[in-house]
Amino acid sequence: MPRIRKKTSRRQNTRDRAKITKKVSEHKRKTKKEAKKDVTWKSKKKADPGVPNTFPYKDRVLAELAEEKRRNEEAKQARRDAQKHKQEEEEADTPGIISLATAVLKASAPAAVAAAPEEEEVDVPELVDTALATLQDVLDKADVVLQVVDARDVLGGRSGYVEKMVVDAGGVFGLIVNKIDLVPREALQGWLPHLPKHTYLFASDPSSSAAGPARQALLSALSSFAIGSDKTVALVGLPNVGKTSVLNALLPLSAKKHDVAPAVPTAASAKNPNPTTVKPTEVRLDLGEGKKIGIIDTPGWEFAEDEEEEEEEGDEEDWDALEDRVAGDMLRRNLGRVDRVKDVFPLVNWILKRSSDQDLMLAYNVPYFQPGDIQTFLLSVARANGRVKKHGDVDVDSAARIVVRDWAHNAFPYYSAPPAGSKGDVEAWREVLDACRTRKEMRASGRGIIKFQGGEIDQREVILDDDYIAMAEGGEEDDDEDEEEEDEDEEDDDEDEEEDDEDEEDEDEEDDASDDADALLISAEDGEELDLEDGPEPSSGSDLAEEDEEEEDEVEEEEEVEEREPTPPTTKRKRKSDVVPVATAKKAKRVSFGKNEIRVMEDERKRGKGKRKRS
Question: Cellular component GO terms, alphabetically (predicted)?
């Protein structure tokens, strides 16, 4: 049988290890230097060679380039100043009546001296109407209340509480079905017979083919409301349903538009998920023929929270219903970045269990899965989008966030199916419906269309007495307080760091002092440290020698007693040490103090042949 060679050790001495490290660093340096010379990684953008010295008009060209650079810098600085001035105007308080009158007088004084050939329209700043501080104030002032709902979920955006309150008060209630360009024509035709009498189809997107006919139909309806005297119309509804967009679409092209929420939520909105409209705004609209009507744009309403109901939620089914309701509220409002919530599964469950399985397969290009099997669908979405972790594990959380992100970015094409029932007369809206796309056309374009099970009319109580103006001003003050708190926290952190540095310096000084004390036990020649188990520190070599002699005498006496009479084994337990056990000291010790050395010989102690000699 051949001899098996023993596995060699990989230990190295310091010289070989340092030599290898040096060679590796040298190789890396050389490789890096050659990579810089490699033409493969050179930029394709050629540097400006400049104006050659032989060119006869070089000075003129350089002067023109310098002048162009100066003009660009001035234009850049002007844009910065204009932006800064615009921000300062937005942050400044709205001017009062006296300041407005002064401004008008100052502007009209030079006009009296030299009249301009053409009069330019001046935008009059909007005054905040403090009489419309709450939603209740808006409803009290309005003659007609139009509730704006999303055409993709008509019933889910309606509030039965507000509708009943307006009807009981004798007011006129209507419904504006916005975003009709996102749902098929067949769904709109099925919904119209189930909606109130004053229902108006609308498309706030100006690029939609249905925007023009829908706008004319709503303006004619507003003209009928304005017969006799000036009327006021209030636009109410959930956040992010398009109330401000409806108002902007009704205004003439030359009028100032109001800010609306972006179609794709920004990253900044994740920290401040609030609606774009924070205070009620009233605008007077001229309808022609001497008719004028006031339109009030309101912030999105909020539902009153029932704390007692939440405390009584003890059953698991009740908790599931509460979770489902909260998820629906978040997705319908779509404020901020709902796809960045910590637990995304309640949101994706709310979406998928209301969507058609076949339409989901076509929209996300995934294989067949059992109806209601959300886990299998998310696994397929993760594999289709390459969301796989290490070791081949599928990232289901990432797939769920893909679906919720599509919803938040308005890339989830869905529509709520109308209830089955009798067909009504839709000839009044024939022109608007003909401008909408059919279900077949929507399926052929983009990601198709997903049939969705919409919600029901919400009967929860709506908060009516929240002061919008106070909340808006309080939000600005809270932002300032947050900035001040951040500055204070930074100052406190700096002070804590200084205190920590001082403590570290004190500890270093203490450690240095203890190191100096320990250094007294180190020999000047051999540099061996004294390792003592028990007893006080020795003051000299002679003292230690005397103690060793006494210990040897005691050991000899004990050995003699054992030889004479064997002692029975004791059952008494030994006392446990409170300190952490340390490694046992070597039996042969060497203690050096200058040139005096003491060697303890264990073999002489065992044999008991005399006492230890001083070396």
Answer: nucleolus
Sign of torsion, CA 515 520 525 531? negative
What CA–CA distance (Å, rounded) separates 519 from 243? 82
Residue reference for tokens 């409209």 = 277
> Other CB atoms closer than 10 Å to residue 378's CB: what's the count?
25
Q: Name residue 201's beta-bridge partners.
A: 177
Say which residue the tokens 């540095």 belong to.
501
Residue by residue, what is the 3-state secondary structure of 95-136?
CCHHHHHHHHHHHHHHHHHCCCCCCCCCCCCCCCCCCCCCHH
Cβ atoms 296, 281 nearer than 8 A: yes
Instruction: Considering only the C-alpha atoms of the chain, give the largest distance between any 2 of them, rounded to a whole number of Å.
Output: 137
Contact between 335 and 273 (Cβ < 8 Å): yes
How far, in Å, CA of 482 to CA of 484, rounded?
5
Beta bridge partners of 450: 414
Burial of 135 (0-12, 13-18, 19+ CB in 10 A): buried
Distance CA 354, CA 366 (A): 18
240 or 534, which is more confident = 240
Are 269 and 335 in contact by the 8 Å Cβ rule? The answer is: yes
Q: Closest Cα partner for 179 from 296, 263, 265, 278?
A: 263
Neighbours of 64 (CB within 10 A): 11
**Residue 301 confidence class, pLDDT cut points 50, 70, 90:** confident
Instruction: Indicate the SS3 state at residue 277.
Output: coil
Contacts of 325 (CB under 8 A, 6+ apart): none
Residue 381 exposed, middle or buried by CB count within 10 Å (0-12, 13-18, 19+)? buried
Six token digits for residue 447: 């990601």
Residues whose CB is less than 8 angstroms from the CB of residue 308 and which lie 6 or more positions away in sequence, other chains included: none
Task: For residue 347, give the nearest of 337, 357, 356 by alpha carbon.
Answer: 337
Check residue 95 and give its pLDDT: 43
Query: pLDDT tens digits for 195-205?
Result: 988 899 999 88
Could you give the CA distance from residue 300 to residue 335 in angstroms, rounded to a whole number? 11
Q: Which residues of 508-545 are buried (b: 16+ CB within 10 A; e: fewer)?
A: eeeeeeeeeeeeebebeeeeeebeeeeeeebeebeebb
Can you read off the two tokens belonging to residue 446? 């983009």
Q: Residue 575 — very low, low, confident or very high, per pLDDT cuts 50/70/90?
A: very low
Distance CA(456)–CA(77), nearest Å, equals 55
Residues 6+ apart with CB under 8 A from 304: 460, 461, 462, 463
- The β-bridge partners of 414 are 450
| Residue pLDDT, tens place only, 200-248 | 999 988 888 888 888 899 988 888 887 777 789 999 999 989 899 999 8
CA contacts within 13 A on the Cβ side of 9: 3
Please state the pTM of the whole predicted model: 0.57
297 closest CA partner among 253, 246, 332, 251 = 246
**Is the per-residue pLDDT at 468 higher than 90?**
no
